[in-house]
């Protein structure tokens, strides 16, 4: 109980200490967007015959007619009230857009991470058990191959092979077959919602849809995860306490899993946290290729047309998730390693 | 509904609003609004080179059962269909029409600038005569007035519904119509997810199609698929029914396979330019512009960028050097002729060339990038050093609006393509669409005169004069009208090339 | 019970095969405690691991025979091995904290070991574990069951380790340096416990250690190893008083005892002749070389490292600083050496206040070259990217403004000669040098620019006794030749007694006692000092 | 460096490579790549930017080994020339972020205190950014010139180097030899830059070689969304991105060859990492 309390306390403290970073991100994005040479008012006032007047109207609508410090103050005030502004591109409130799209991104990223972890950890362990052997080199090569293909290429290739040539995969157009009926939205995660609704066919359809994009992303992150698993597994296999475990005759499985792996898992958690955060932001390309209605592709489109509010909202969201993931990693750390609570 | 009764249309763009008037509306939003809203009138269709295209000259009633133009051309009277109903079942009245048109010319929305070109500027011009009759008054006869009412913007909105959602700051309920359709159109929007998809079902009560019956497809799915190669795969595998924005190379290969129906129509109302800003040196020198016009690798560009899909606007021969027609655009007597180009450069006092930047839009990269590479290579041969700039869309439009780009690729499109309309809107004034920043008094004068010219022959002469000035001054270089390649399942029928350069879903049916 | 015959172990390494054990034969009776001593690298641990089959993957038994209770287990594997491990023979390792799984509770780990060999329920195993904890005399065993290793002190960890090892009643226990890393006081307690448990349960024990004193105190029989070979086997008294083998002789001589002098540590042949012996204390009235007035150090995190520490030193004087781990010895020496700033107090060197110059700027001070330091661990006191030559030349370049060239080379070689470092080693990198060689480089570096005060922070703690002996002797010689003043930090009281005129005893940053070394150790005034002195294991005095 | 040392370095390198075939292959690949980049202008069979539209989109043949692209340019020639730009981008981006990140990180790790906290905050802000989006925004803001792509890539790599250097220096700052350097009269700054940094370099080499690959991928990603280097400059990422769109029309050579080039480069760098550490670390030497 004491340790849980301490962990929570630490997490809380860490959260508070990351607030300035969030604020920094907020301001920095705001400024960065204004530095972009594109003027959203001009872009969006691009109907035929749009003239100065239309541009002015939009500018006023976006609040761009005010001096920069005022804009910033208004923006901060709005954000404080949970209003992230409106997207010119979709015409919706950014908060609403993000809320609708975040589950898609999260579902994809989490699945990818899961696939990556499930394959990377055993591979890493395998490599660590026989360092320098053929297995080790093989694992290294396999993982490195995954990380050296740009995701958009592997994505397009997977589509070409599994959808176009073989027809195994459903059409790569988003989260669910367009003709399927959606389950009542409870979590926003389709594969969970379908399960809750007891619709197994729907679940299977959603899972199939998820497979290729998740695989594309997973391929890209197996390498760092396997690498860190191998490295920390090597350390913990070589450590004194594993030798102790051997000296008292524990079974092989127990030594590898309970003793070595559980100790080796800490850095893996850290890296998984980092990987998760970067994936969430960097899966723009995968989302584009698979027409996945996620937040990253949303932000990319907005960025290209200098639609400020969505980009700002997206970055803030990502930063918040980053902070939350860090907290989570901390808490996991606390659970996985009793020593962490002392530090 | 069965799959056969559904039309699945995939596109790289997205529908971002249900009200086409909202600033920032996309072309896809326009297309959807054609089906979700009705207008008073609509364009007819005609066959051109064996393909159906919209016909500017036939204007038929849509919500109007009939219309009449007074002899002096100052009054247009519309009789509404008595049986027309909004999608919520309430009847369409003249009040609704007046409110909608008032809104179009007063609210700060896109329709305002458009209707202006048809002399429709004020709410006073619209008068309710009785519940099914409305009268439009014009300050002077304007042949674009009626066509303007067939364009995308003057949608007829269910005014009672809209007013219920109006607020003091937003008297025209713009915020509400953005996300809610309150029209009488052929399709009722069911799901609207900007950036993902729109799903609409057929409005069974709608009967304003050509043979007075509802649209053919029971359901309509408009889906955003950003990756063009994926769109091609979808339609090839039969998962999508229709797509119009494929890459030229994919269209070529799909056409070659012969499994699908491919209808390619040059975009008659659109022109792609290599533009030069006539106020930025050295492009302020007419001879430089001429030199460029004769130094561009037209054929190569056409082949490499468009795979030969479209209508070239170069390589014509004008007998006795005069424009053969008063239409716009017409093919120009320009071609790759480096000797000539060098001569012009010399005349311009720059025999050794100069350096400049050449810009294009990231969104257009698929065609613009090979073009730019070719332009750079060719111009290099006459000493013009070109630095290629690839700009994100918003930056490009901002830079163009601020007249900062000397040399770039751009395109124009006119919904009401008449010669004077093109010249007035794209060659005059300090505004964004005057890409070349042309300021030519003679051109402006003739164009303004032509606007209200009723005599066809005279109009033709004016058009020729404008074309002659254009060629002489070479403000910018029209290069082609790219093709609109509609690729569809062989079963899909009724595709018509529309002024919006989008699909009008109401035209389509399945054999 | 255990018989080992002509055991040979090789390791395949990147540099080819390394023969670590080259023919060891020994035997052990039930209930006997055998000492296995020798210097670092002599193959003690490898012998232990080979017997228990815990060698690294790279290691192989190439020859020999291991018989355990009459059974040949040389090539045992799989299930045999597992039942052998723990149930028949167990091992206790050097660093107890590292040898325990940091993320499992003490109770779980003991229970794991029990469950590996006996069919019990978890609860029964836990109960058994608790009784084991009681057996190793841990205070408050119920509470400790749920504790993690990091929550325990080093001594407690070692007790837990013992509990794990004896959990299945093995008949053979191999304790590989069970007390290195522990305080002298804790060492005694743990060893006593181990001896008692072994006796109670009739376990045969092999005690691996490099501390002859320890072996002498607890073992009935001691074998000495050198470079993978057994060189001598005897009872401790015989061994220490009449060593047969030259290696044993050297080893015995090098181990400091309560009465030994520096000169005794090294066999006659290797003794360095003292040039000028100025045993006399400097005359009264000479100005103080170092005057430390009430300095204290409080770290950023609030820990008080040293509080109100005062001392004085004269030129050529040698002062020892002793105390248990964490008592502030290093902190004090680093403050005096001007590597960190004191939070309060004043330091005068040669009459000048050097405490006022911030440590950040002290490198520019004239006095920098007068105060030099030699560090505890020779392994990390040399820049891995510098050759020995570079290391020694470094202060010359920086503090004496010498340029690279013949003169520098000459000076470096001279220093190397003075510390007895062969010149051909100068081009080597630290990892290519032995511990003793590295220590010499460190000393050469410190004396290169002829300082007046040398601070030595446990300069021999990581060295073997024989190397330590040589280094101590060397230091002593240098001190006398150059009339250097030493501030000598160590936890080995015997060494301090030999090296220092005066000794200061520190405890949690506070001076407990100080005085003339010999007197202080002969007759400690405080309990703390007495405990320190008593805990040092000695080879029993020779029978008269 | 004396000749003794260089020869021992070489011997050591050879030793490491022999013991680790994967690294050896990767090293050979990287070397080949570097040679290719250096001698690119003399190797290309055709002018990489000269178009020949009549010969566009030809499959591999004896004349054009890797086929031709949309403008009839020789894919092989473009590939070879692109190696130059790609390696330049990768190497400069990594060099910039390494130079800046390691120095700042090392100083922070050594000094601790307020500087450390301030920089830590800055790094937090950077880390909290979705990095690829940051790169996109920066390229969009600054214009898609090669320098800007390099800067953007460098900035998004920066936090890793700062953190890494900070951590590595932090654990070493109290080691004997560091204090010894101080006692030998070195200032704090000199200790950090001349003593600590070179010692953390081997560990960072792994990160660097990974980042080299990553930088190339990053540039490719930017190209894919249209923010890559400007045409007609040949660059692998652009070639792959353009070629990827031709997959469905069966013009596989447009994506396959640039894709393979890019892949093998990234693969080499990735696999090189571990070996590089062994080579650079003097402690691994005999
Ligand atoms: N895993 C290994 N690989 C290669 N050589 C090894 C390995 N383990 C030990 N050795 C070598 O075996 C020899 C004996 O080592 P061992 O650990 O037994 O020494 P030790 O007597 O226990 O010394 P210490 O007192 O330092 O513990 C040493 O020279 C060492 O280098
Ligand atoms: N940088 C630091 N920050 C905070 N506390 C420190 C720091 N350095 C030392 N301490 C604390 O100051 C106290 C004295 O430490 P010091 O290193 O001087 O002990 P020591 O006597 O040299 O011990 P040992 O024999 O283990 O070397 C310890 O409690 C230690 O934890
Ligand atoms: Mg040992
Ligand atoms: Mg210390």
Task: Describe what this molecule looks like in 3D.
The complex is a heterotetramer of chains A (343), B (511), C (544) and D (286). Chain A is mostly helical and 343 residues long. In chain A, 75% of the residues lie in helices and 0% in strands. Chain B is of the alpha+beta class and 511 residues long. Chain B is built from 16 helices and 20 strands. The longest helix of chain B has 18 residues, at 456-473. The radius of gyration of chain B is 24 Å and the shape is globular. Chain C is α/β, with parallel strands linked by helices and 544 residues long. In chain C, a hairpin with a 2-residue loop joins strand 19 (502-507) and strand 20 (510-516). The two termini of chain C are 36 Å apart. The relative contact order of chain C is 0.11. Chain D is mainly alpha-helical. Chain D has helices spanning 3-19, 21-43, 75-111, 113-128, 131-142, 146-172, 176-183, 188-224, 236-244, 253-280. The interface between C and D is medium-sized, with 36 and 25 residues. One adenosine-5'-triphosphate (ATP) binds at residues 11, 13, 18, 20, 38, 40-46, 56, 58-59, 210 of chain C. One adenosine-5'-triphosphate binds next to helix 13 of chain C. Chain A: It is found in: Cell membrane. Chain A: Residues 102-333 form the ABC transmembrane type-1 domain. Chain A: Pfam families: BPD_transp_1, BPD_transp_1_N. Chain A: This is ABC transporter permease.
